[in-house]
Amino acid sequence: MVRKPCCDKVGLKRGPWTIDEDQKLLNFILNNGIHCWRLVPKLAGLMRCGKSCRLRWTNYLRPDLKRGALSEVEEDQIIELHSRLGNRWSKIASYFPGRTDNEIKNHWNTRIKKRLKLLGIDPLTHKPIETAAAKCEEKKKENMNLVQEYCFHLMMDERQWERMDLEEMKVINGNYNTPFSIGDQFYVEGSTFSW
């Protein structure tokens, strides 16, 4: 089943709204109210589609809209609501009388998201961002712990020390340049040092 298009697009104006068009739409709605958005453009004398008129009214012309930048308190409230509601912009906008869902969404995407990233917070999860360097350090620690644990088990049997060579230790160590020691020898890939 195909939905009927909102209008016949032939002959309709597209692009930015003019002051004259805004005035026609505003006067029509204030004098007649809104009954059906599909009929509004024709009755108001506009060469726009009903959807365009609805969005223009909802996001720009409504008399109860707040103008101007969002305050820091409003931004903090948006962050808090986003952490609970996600990208449900209409639901978030319901907490801000006079602000539209579109305005809040645009402010989130252009300002708040960037601010959170600069603070080291993931805008989707609202948790600290784990850097690549931190992940690498964690992996090195895990590998070092495995090597130390393996060496400890080897020390239990003195004869095993004699059978183990450096190549086996490289395999255990995952070929990272992490130092390890056997007896009084200290190894870093490609080098051997004595204590």
UniProtKB/TrEMBL annotation:
GO terms for molecular function: transcription cis-regulatory region binding. Keywords: DNA-binding, Nucleus, Repeat, Transcription, Transcription regulation. Residues 9-61, 62-112 form the Myb-like domain. Residues 9-61, 62-116 form the HTH myb-type domain. Coiled coil: none annotated. The keyword Zinc-finger does not apply. Its main location: nucleus. GO terms for cellular component: nucleus. This is Uncharacterized protein. It comes from Dioscorea zingiberensis.
